[in-house]
Amino acid sequence: MTETTGTIAELIERAIRGDLAARQALLERYRDELRRVVASRLDRRLAARVDPSDVVQETLADASRRMDEYLRDRALPFFGWLRQLAGERVIDTHRRHIVAQRRTITREDRVPDLPDDSAGILVRKLVAADTSPSNRLSRQERHEQVMAALASLSARDREVLVMRYLEQLSTGAIADAIGITEGAVKARLLRALIHMRGHLEVDL
To answer: Do 204 and 116 have their domain in common?
Structure first.
């Protein structure tokens, strides 16, 4: 258990007993992490119209309304639950601003659902900038190869890779989100990185 996990567990117990300050503290604890989650998943075409902080605020308002439900069931770690709500708000935002505007579905909802620029970030982080043959590939080819490499990962390893390198979450925050130890997070990250690099090198 991380120090943060212990603090969250204490706040949850107080919230269950009706402590309103504890409820507010729970909602505010992960605001910065949620902003990074949202920013990594928003389509760049929305940058001029949608502030990730607004999506986070909507997420926290939704969490506040559904807090009693969470406190009864607690099926997920608290940050994992918030992150799930944030993902739902991002999908809703895409539908409102992109799908509705075009009157058609521009992309399928899939895991991970990453904008093109996010895939590019993964390429730069996972493949050496100066020596990799991927530098000769077009943007679309890079995107497709990263998507294929991500799809070849197990769901658990893919999740921690996206959380660490796109959502820029610490290993402690990842551990809090999915309910495992920091050591287990680091092991999954290492396994995912080795797999991704090997997959990209082979395909290139």
So the answer is: yes
Structure tokens at 15: 């919230």
Q: Are residues 3 and 27 in the same domain?
A: yes
Q: CB-based burial of residue 144 (10 Å sphere; 0-12 exposed, 13-18 middle, 19+ buried)?
A: middle
Q: Are residues 38 and 57 in the same domain?
A: yes
**Helix (DSSP H) and strand (DSSP E) numbers for the chain:** 12, 0
pLDDT tens by residue, 46-86: 777 889 999 999 999 999 999 999 999 999 999 999 999 99
The DSSP symbol for 98 reads: I
- Per residue in 99-108, pLDDT (tens digit) is 655 544 344 3
Q: Are residues 127 and 55 in the same domain?
A: no
Q: Which of 178, 165, 1 is nearest to 189 (CA)?
A: 165
Structural domain ending residue among the three candidates 74, 109, 144 = 109
pTM for the structure as a whole: 0.73
The total of structural domains in the chain comes to 2
**Would the CA dihedral through 148, 150, 153, 156 be positive or negative?**
negative
**Helix, strand, coil abundance in the chain, percent, nearest 5:** 75, 0, 25
* 8 Å CB contact between 143 and 116: yes
Q: Is 40 exposed, middle or buried (0-12, 13-18, 19+ CB in 10 A)?
A: buried
